[in-house]
Design the sequence.
């Protein structure tokens, strides 16, 4: 079991709440981002945000459901990618 | 032989009961199971007073309940009204009201939003698929529907092929939706043509990419069932991530794909296709808008085993012409090809007289896939159809497509422009399609749309929006357009977006761009490899 990446998760959650979700919606790290919450444009913006903020490059092979399903999975993907490029 | 949409699953279940009808989203379902479940819904509707040809709205997210509900409504003799699951409440209400639907098939999570709608839609009496009460309406849960399952197949309800099968709505962002009525006969005419044209068989697996309330579903579901093939369902999450979508195509061994070009462009640009084995794809059908040539060429190189077919039509006529791309080079622009066997096409001028050979004019369509008309809309029906005497006191009825086409020397039809996509800028006629083509000629432009915005007075301003790759600026793109277009056809403003707004079928939504007249600025997008 990988350690949760609380700091990464907090940064991502803040962006999702401030930029992508309606004001009255609050989500948690394990909520499914893809089914109802975000449309395809918002998913692209989220990918752009993590690339810029965390200095990674999300190419087509990483642009998959497993990485973007929840805030927790996205934080893990970011942590993994940063570790492997260092 | 009776040509009824629900007979397709009955026949498939008879021939090959264990063959898979739908794959994905909660498990595979055989044709036998599909008949059982559709039959249960049909019986539930009949028990709850469904009258012959009464409208039954279906409001469901993607999933196996969609085909079960479609066939259940049809088998009960109802007229199916599939509603776009992403519709706002006001749109759902408009459709229920305009069609006078008496029954609604939905799912529990919709219950909360339905109370208010039901309070105003007085024709709606029965809601199937919810647990919590909705006003004073009679309700039935899915558990109750399942309890009505039997081994007796579909109920025996008299249905004629001339009866309404479904009423589809288009979702323009403004105004009232168009409600398009098709009979079992007009739907089956397309289904049978499609099965023959693409040689669909029980080994095939068809994609279900476009939303199920569109005319694309006629192919994805009914043509698949007629052939005894499988329909592969995608989750909303998969549809948002092209890398996952391409993986699903590989894993499910999809053999026939049908969508708007945009979906294929996304797969090409962001779907990691070089890492996938998509050799199972034998036909790729696309329709609805122009396929940018540079992307089409790359996709063909990426998928050398697939054949490509450009199909042309609209919800009103379903598919009426088609063009199978030849091996190697293909003409520019891509023709829309020849009329299907069930269709006659005629090109006419502004007075509805045939044009001279090779001249462009409006395309008129006559044939067995043409809708019977717009629901409850005599004004639209008056202008949509053109009736010409054909002798003996009879007449031929043509649907006016509103599309400008010309007949090429070899007999193929070529699309020229939408009649309503020609605008006047300071007295000059501008084809929005030509502006878009010029933008797409620029290497860094992935997608482009040109549109006009009214200044509230008499004049229009020409604008454009693009999706680009790599670093560029709107000014730089406009500068380069000046080499390609006359000055009046260079958009006055150009914006770079993450993605173009789309209608539910995936076509660029020019109306919303024009209406809003302003659009979000570009955000960082996913980096390209």
Sequence:
């Amino acid at each position: 079991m990988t350690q949760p990446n609380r700091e990464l998760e907090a940064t991502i959650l803040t962006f999702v709440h401030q930029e992508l979700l309606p004001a009255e919606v609050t989500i948690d790290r394990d909520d499914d981002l893809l089914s109802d919450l975000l449309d395809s444009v918002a998913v692209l913006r989220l990918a752009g945000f993590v690339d810029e903020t965390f200095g990674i490059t999300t190419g087509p092979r990483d642009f998959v459901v497993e990485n973007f399903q929840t805030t927790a999975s996205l934080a893990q993907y970011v942590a993994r990618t940063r570790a492997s490029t260092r | 032989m009776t040509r009824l949409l629900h007979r397709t699953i009955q026949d498939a279940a008879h021939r090959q009961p264990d063959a898979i009808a739908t794959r994905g989203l909660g498990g595979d379902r055989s044709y036998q199971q599909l008949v059982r479940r559709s039959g249960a819904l049909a019986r539930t509707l009949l028990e709850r007073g469904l009258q012959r040809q009464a409208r039954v709205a279906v409001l469901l997210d993607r999933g196996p309940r969609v085909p079960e509900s479609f066939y259940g409504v049809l088998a009960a003799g109802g007229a199916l009204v599939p509603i776009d699951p992403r519709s706002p409440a006001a749109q759902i209400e408009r459709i229920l009201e305009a069609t006078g639907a008496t029954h609604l098939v939905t799912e529990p999570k919709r219950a909360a939003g339905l109370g208010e709608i039901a309070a105003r839609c007085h024709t709606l009496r029965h809601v199937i698929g919810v647990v919590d009460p909705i006003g004073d309406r009679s309700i039935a849960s899915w558990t109750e529907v399942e309890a009505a399952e039997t081994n007796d197949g579909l109920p025996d309800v008299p249905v004629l092929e001339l009866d309404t099968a479904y009423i589809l709505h288009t979702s323009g962002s403004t105004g009232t939706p168009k409600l398009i009525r098709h009979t079992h006969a007009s739907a089956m005419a397309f289904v049978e043509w499609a099965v023959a044209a693409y040689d669909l068989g029980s080994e095939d697996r068809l994609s279900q990419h476009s939303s199920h309330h569109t005319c694309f579903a006629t192919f994805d579901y009914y043509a698949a069932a007629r052939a005894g093939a499988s329909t592969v369902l995608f989750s909303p999450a998969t549809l948002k991530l092209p890398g996952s979508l391409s993986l699903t195509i590989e894993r499910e061994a999809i053999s026939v794909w049908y969508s708007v070009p945009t979906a294929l462009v996304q797969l090409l640009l962001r779907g990691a296709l070089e890492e996938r084995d998509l050799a199972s794809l034998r036909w790729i059908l696309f329709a609805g808008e122009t396929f940018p040539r540079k992307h089409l060429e790359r996709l063909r190189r990426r998928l050398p085993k697939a054949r490509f077919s450009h199909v042309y039509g609209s919800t009103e006529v379903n598919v009426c012409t088609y063009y199978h791309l030849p091996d190697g080079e293909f003409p520019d622009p891509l023709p829309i090809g020849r009329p299907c066997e069930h269709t006659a096409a005629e090109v006419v001028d502004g007075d509805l007289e045939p044009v001279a050979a090779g001249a462009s004019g409006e395309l008129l369509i006559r044939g067995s896939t043409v809708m019977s008309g717009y629901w409850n809309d005599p004004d639209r029906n008056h202008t949509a159809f053109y009736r010409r005497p054909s002798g003996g006191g009879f007449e031929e009825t043509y649907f006016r497509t509103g599309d400008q086409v010309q007949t090429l020397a070899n007999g193929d039809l070529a699309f020229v422009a939408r009649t309503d996509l020609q605008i006047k800028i300071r007295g000059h006629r501008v084809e929005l399609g030509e502006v878009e083509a010029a933008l797409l000629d620029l290497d860094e432009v992935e997608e482009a749309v040109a549109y006009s915005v009214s200044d509230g007075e008499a004049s229009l301003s020409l604008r454009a929006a693009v999706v680009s790759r790599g670093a560029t600026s709107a000014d730089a793109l406009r500068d380069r357009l000046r080499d390609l277009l006359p000055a009046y056809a260079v958009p006055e403003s150009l914006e770079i977006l993450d993605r173009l707004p789309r209608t539910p079928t995936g076509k660029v939504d020019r109306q919303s761009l024009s209406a809003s007249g302003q659009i979000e600025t570009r955000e960082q997008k996913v980096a390209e490899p």
Observations:
- DSSP finds 16 helices and 27 strands in chain B.
- The radius of gyration of chain B is 23 Å.
